[in-house]
């Protein structure tokens, strides 16, 4: 046993070095691929531009795997059996719970206005369609980001023994959006201070990244994170936001809203209150 310890130590050190190289190759790839995709997304303002941008992290991860000859064994495109399937209701339902709590408080208190003339039954049908159909469509977009952020960067930060890898990966994920916000093409259409929106959005994404990391690492599969991402975008962006108005609604609700952030803090604490697993890929 003693004679094997140096070998294990060498393997551990090599894995750490490889992971650190992977992080840097990935980040360079994200910057190189995202810059033209962001310019196109801002200019085109259509789904193709958004699709190209959201796939920049995924393509960067695939490039890093090829360049460093890491292979694709831990890309985690299997559901992962019962553990993976049990995570799916959480992935679908978490955005609904956050939206109902945050927007419900905002609408009830008058901090923002509910703008639909249809009844709540109609809104419920719209929400159901958003969760089911909207999420299904959004998988094509969300898969690109999650192959990069949770499918590669998070696991490499863990292997590189970077302190607080979830916090670091979440902060990088949040910062990746900032050029769109600063450029005025994302979250700023309803007015408000760009600086305040940027700060609140970074806090929001960093907090919710803990939930994304939990469903990814607990299951060993990237799919729960993909479903969570697609469900979030559909529920918040296409169901609740269009029914919300008011001069200060931008401050309270939406992906940068204070109420949404408060709900996410509570939600993340509930989801992550117990120690989680660290599965790079689904168990057999």
TrEMBL record:
CAAX prenyl protease 2/Lysostaphin resistance protein A-like domain mapped to chain residues: 131-234
Transmembrane intervals: 23-44, 50-68, 89-108, 120-144, 165-187, 193-213, 220-240, 252-272
Organism of this sequence: Nocardia tenerifensis
Name of protein: CAAX prenyl protease-like protein
GO biological-process terms attached to the record: CAAX-box protein maturation; proteolysis
Pfam families reported in the protein's UniProt record: Rce1-like
UniProt keywords, alphabetically: Hydrolase, Membrane, Protease, Transmembrane, Transmembrane helix
Domain of life: Bacteria
InterPro entries: MmRce1-like, Rce1/LyrA-like_dom
GO molecular function: endopeptidase activity
């Amino acid at each position: 046993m003693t004679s094997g310890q140096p070998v294990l130590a060498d393997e551990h050190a090599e894995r750490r070095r490889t992971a650190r190289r992977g992080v840097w190759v990935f980040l360079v790839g994200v910057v190189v691929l995202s810059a033209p995709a962001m310019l196109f997304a801002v200019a085109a303002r259509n789904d193709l531009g958004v699709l190209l941008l959201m796939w920049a992290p995924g393509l960067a991860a695939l490039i890093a795997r090829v360049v460093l000859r890491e292979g694709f064994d831990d890309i985690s495109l299997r559901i992962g059996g019962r553990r993976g399937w049990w995570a799916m209701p959480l992935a679908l339902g978490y955005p609904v719970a956050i939206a109902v709590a945050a927007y419900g408080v905002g609408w009830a208190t008058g901090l923002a206005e509910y703008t639909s003339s249809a009844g709540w039954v109609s809104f419920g049908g719209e929400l159901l369609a958003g969760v089911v159909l909207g999420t299904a469509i959004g998988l094509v977009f969300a898969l690109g980001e999650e192959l990069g952020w949770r499918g590669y960067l998070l696991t490499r930060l863990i292997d590189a023994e970077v302190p607080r890898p979830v916090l670091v990966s979440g902060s990088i994920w949040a910062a990746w959006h900032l050029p769109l916000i600063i450029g005025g093409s994302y979250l700023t259409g309803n007015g408000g201070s760009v600086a305040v929106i940027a700060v609140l959005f970074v806090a929001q994404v960093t907090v919710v990244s803990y939930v994304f990391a939990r469903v990814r690492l607990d299951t060993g599969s990237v799919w729960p994170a993909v479903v969570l991402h697609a469900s979030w975008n559909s529920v918040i962006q296409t169901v609740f936001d269009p029914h919300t108005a008011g001069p200060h609604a931008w401050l309270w609700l939406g992906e940068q809203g204070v109420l949404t952030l408060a709900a996410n803090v509570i939600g993340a604490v509930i989801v992550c209150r117990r120690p989680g697993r660290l599965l790079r890929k689904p168990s057999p």
